[in-house]
Amino acid sequence: MAPKLSIVIPAYNMERWLPVALESCLWQTESDIEVIVVNDGSADRTLDVAGIYAEADSRVKVFDQENRGAGVTREVGQQHARGDYLLWLDADDFLDRDAAQKMLAVAYRDDVDMVCGNAVVFSEKTFNTRRYFYLPEASGITFDDPAYWKSKVLWRWIFRTNFLRRIGLTHPAFKLGQDVCSMYQALTSVNRFSQCGHFMYYFRQDHKRTSMALPLEVDHQIAHFIEVKRILLDAGAVKPLVKYLNENLFRDIKKLAPRMTGEDAVWRERCVSHCLTLFEGLEPAWFRSDFLAPQLKEQTAFLPLVDAFISKDMQEIEAQLDIWKAKGLKRKAADKENSFHTLRRRIKALCTLRSLKTRFLLRSLERRARRRLSEQGIPW
């Protein structure tokens, strides 16, 4: 008999965090689950750790492959999933104990293909926490609701497995922005979905904030916008596309412009090439208030660059990029990693119920993992 939920965990060099993720699956109040770990050619003990859990609990299945990237790894898990519903869990995050029970209750009650949950983002260093784009419980939602136009991550959702297979959900090979493409494919294919108000997911942020190399940011982060454009325009979802470009492409270009100089100027040319492809066929009016109202506002500062890309005015494109390069070089980022900021965040975390709960859950899971692994002679 098929389980109610398949939890798919793609894992690459995750021996440090995978035990907590797995413990959070096995302590679910809803026991009718399966856990699928797909090891993507890890060079550390990820496969050994997963194997220990598979031997200890028959609900854990492990699949091993050569390193093929996150997209293929997710697809392998999707192919092997037998549950009524599927949830993707990053190997360095963890689930609330009632996550499966709460999300499935909404899914079965409303008979929907997708349910969105809420998440807590936390710092392992300070245990400072924040809500990740909180949304209240609701039913009968469609993608016409602007609140879901910025739904960019797979991990806060459960999906009916047959729905994913029916629409042929794909996971592009981008190393950045991949979740977005898959999410928009699902959101533009589903008839209606529901929102669970429960905080079901805990997202560990510290080590995920490392700066990326220019080739990765240009050929993956910038390039993924082209696939997003294809998906959303095919669905006639122009406003969600404009919102995504205004909020994310503009941010990325401002961040990249000061870096694409000197020996790295070739990446500026590459970035421009991707953007010219991206803006091919887009209308300048789509980025103006007359079209965007009442749901959205125009990004006035972004408009000159938008118009230049649409008209393929290379001189103006270069002029606009130079403006953002100069602004970026003048901007001095606040040092939020110094001891004062760390201390301030730790004090704040001690006064916040959400932060205290997060710390308690994580420490409980760590103790369970340490005990299990020590019994197998593996220090952790």
From TrEMBL:
UniProt keywords, alphabetically: Transferase
Listed SUPFAM superfamilies: Nucleotide-diphospho-sugar transferases (SSF53448)
MF terms in GO: hexosyltransferase activity
Domain Glycosyltransferase 2-like: 6-132
Entry superkingdom: Bacteria
Protein's name according to its UniProt entry: Glycosyl transferase family 2
Source organism of the structure: Oleidesulfovibrio alaskensis (strain ATCC BAA-1058 / DSM 17464 / G20)
